[in-house]
Fold:
Amino acid sequence: MSDRVPDAFLEHLAPRIPDADEREALRRALERPLPTTFRVQSGDEAAILAGLAARGLESVPLPFARGGHRVVAGPDPGPLLEHAIGRLYVQEAASMIAGETLLRTAPAAPDLVLDLCASPGSKTTQLAAGLPAATTLLANEPTPTRVKVLAANLLRTGSAAALSQADGRALGPRLAGRCDAVLVDAPCSGEGTVRRDPKALRGWHRRRFPRFTSVQSELLRAAAIATRPGGVVVYSTCALSPEENHEVVAAAVASGDFETIPLGPAFPNSRRA
Structure:
């Protein structure tokens, strides 16, 4: 047993990952240091990368997110001027996938896109950078202190977005049928953040699930109400257990609110999508 990934957690995943060697590979992966990644938020990407390289920051592109890069050598981009003035946004690679999925699957020329659980703004700023200029982006966050963080990141990056502070479960009916796409980056147990936070799985127990899954299902239902027929909802969490992911989505599909679409066409170079 490691201090970071408890045996009980891996055993919980055994029905979905029955091979013991694969579970051990997952443990090793979760114990590896997290790479530093960032997005070029705005400006001339080639010129910005050249300027970073001149100061010793070398990076390689991420194949699944436009503007995304992984640092391979040099300084942390967080304290750099480009980050302070919003040209760069330091964002975990996995975090970029949900926003990129919405950008690649949303209806053409969307009128209204909703980020239902937006703070701190990583995915909101990503959507703002990738959506057409004529699209209205509404960023919602219910918690006052987190709204301030979201607003600060929107201002720092010059992201064009409207801001609301509401319970997402109540906001869905107020926007009934008006959204072309909704991102539901739902509150969760945070299991998948263990590479960044070694304490994320400390004291892990499956009894944690109900407090999250009920809210996740309610938010997904609100997103269904807010989205017009033919629109797209992207659901994501920072959790790894099927209770917070596969089972929440399966219940939403079974309710008749959604049908799933394959992501292979959106990510044609992926081995699995």
